[in-house]
Amino acid sequence: MQDLKQKAVRGGVARLCAQGITFLLRIGSLIVLARLLSPKDFGLVNMVTVFTTVLFLLRDFGLSAASVQQSTVTHEQISGLFWINIVIGSVIWLLAVAFAPVVANFYSEPRLYGVTVVLAASFFFNAVGVQHSALLQRQMRFTTLALINMISSASGVAIAIAAAMAGYGYWALVAMSVTSPLIATLCFWLATGWVPSRPYKRTGIGSLFRFGSGLTLTSILVYIGYNAEKVMIGRLWGAEAIGIYGRGYQIISIPTDNLNAAIGEVAFATLSRLQDDPVRFKNYFLKGFSLVLGLTLPVTIACGLFADDIVYVVLGPTWNDAAAIVRLLAPTITVFAIINPLGWVVFSMGLIKRGMKAAPVIATLMIIGYVISLPYGPKGVAFAYSAVLTLWVIPHIFWCAHRTPISFWDILKAISRPLCCGIVAGGIALSVRLALGGAVSPLPRLLLESGVLFGAFFTVLLFAAGQKSLYLETLNGLRGSSSTAGRISASA
Question: What pLDDT digit, counting tens, does each position of 50-74 carry?
């Protein structure tokens, strides 16, 4: 435990750097594919993935998180979990194939049958590598994980672009979704060198299975709450509408997904090791939470103020309708930056029942919001999405922080400083935006207004809000991690 802080900082920096590259890959692929494929191509794949992602949440039944969360775990236990994952992955694969005609009939779109059948293979590919990935997390080999994620993402993007240029249409997106998990799993096996043994009886995996099943149920309910609107839009408004909504949603979700993957993975493993040390637990959490907020708030403001320029630059002029979706969904970037880290606290402490009680409430509220707003089209749904989540933030903080080392006021204090900095920086950037008007073309205007926003935000945050030491510590971790990263990469 003596070098836990060093490992956490190094791991977090490695993951942040890797996610920065992954972010560029995702944005780059979106820029290219949006110009090679039509909104309907994206919409067709979105129609399927909304359904298949529910099954995707079942791929490991939360057993990877369970093996990371436990203080100690044996080879026999991990082997037992591996074989359970294989069985679950195989069953879900077959279920998805059997469910393919239902998806096609639901949308009255025969092409979705083949898409669903091919995408189903990714469930098995993921299942084979789940415990190997968990082992890397337990060993806090986050640099290795980062490299694997970059390799798998880049491979999937390259295949998708090549297929799109060859005229395969929506199958390019399907190829990307199947290729990335296959390559990631192969890399996980090579990196760990771990080979599972045959399953044993009485390996003591009952508690792990209970934790994993509770986490899975919570994830499914939350996923339904956050994604049911896509099914409704696709059903009522068609493939093109969900294609436009989906690309706007993707622009919004990329920063959230990348930050959560970069810091959340490290934070969960670290906090799980500290669950019996409340002082260090609180200190580590608040630093990670402040870092997430600091990196998220300017992105939220940029999406709210400069949505039209972002959509024009990223997606192209044929996607102008997505700008309103991006602007309306922008608040959710910050909302998720608050909600997701609180999950680190709840699950790292093993408070799985608390998550299970909150999940159906938020899912119900979100679905009610969608039903009310659906007649107003994708824009109405986007507004409802943001409104319900924003109203949910305060109750969520109370519920997650209750009887943990983190208090409600700790969270509010951590939020207040970057929020005030964001208001100041947003005002400055908006002034620049209004001054430029239409005199500058979208790309240089976006670069200039975003540069002013981020520059003003971090200047105020570091020097006026007193968070300079947090970021210096992170940079020191980056410098200190270079030799360690090299050793880890070599051993991988």
Answer: 777 766 666 655 656 666 656 566 7
Would you say 242 and 47 are in contact if contact means Cβ atoms under 8 Å apart? yes
DSSP tag of 460: I
What dihedral do alpha carbons 248, 249, 251, 252 form, nearest 10°? 130
Query: Would you list the DSSP string of 61-89?
Result: TTHHHHHHHSS---HHHHHHHHHHHHHHH
Instruction: Please state, in angstroms and rounded to a whole number, the distance separating the CA atoms of residues 204 and 276.
Output: 22
Burial of residue 462 (CB within 10 Å: 0-12, 13-18, 19+) is middle
State CA 490 to chain mean position distance.
28
Which pLDDT score is estimated for 4? 55
Cβ pair 338, 293 in contact under 8 A: yes
Predicted confidence at residue 456, as pLDDT, reads 94
- Comparing 156 with 17, which gets the higher pLDDT? 156
Name the DSSP class of 60: S
Q: Mean pLDDT, to the nearest integer, of 171-199?
A: 88
Taking each continuous run of H as one helix and of E as one strand, the counts in the chain are 20, 0
> How many alpha carbons fall within 13 Å on the CB side of residue 81?
33
Residue type for position 83: W
| Domain extent listing, the chain | 4-491
Give CA–CA dist 258/26, Å, rounded: 10
Query: How remote is the C-alpha of 260 from its chain's centroid?
Result: 5
Q: Are 159 and 218 in contact (CB under 8 A)?
A: no
State the pLDDT at residue 473: 67
Q: Which of 132-146, 284-298, 451-465 has the lowest mean pLDDT?
A: 132-146
Average pLDDT, stretch 333-339?
90
SS (H, E, C) 23-55: HHHHHHHHHHHHHHCCHHHHHHHHHHHHHHHHH
Amino acid identity, residue 355? G
d(CA 195, CA 212): 22
Question: What predicted TM-score, i.e. pTM, was given to this entire model?
Answer: 0.68
Least confident of 36-45, 323-332, 449-458: 36-45
Quote the CA–CA distance of 13 and 2 in Å, as a whole number: 19
Q: Which amino acid is at 113?
A: Y
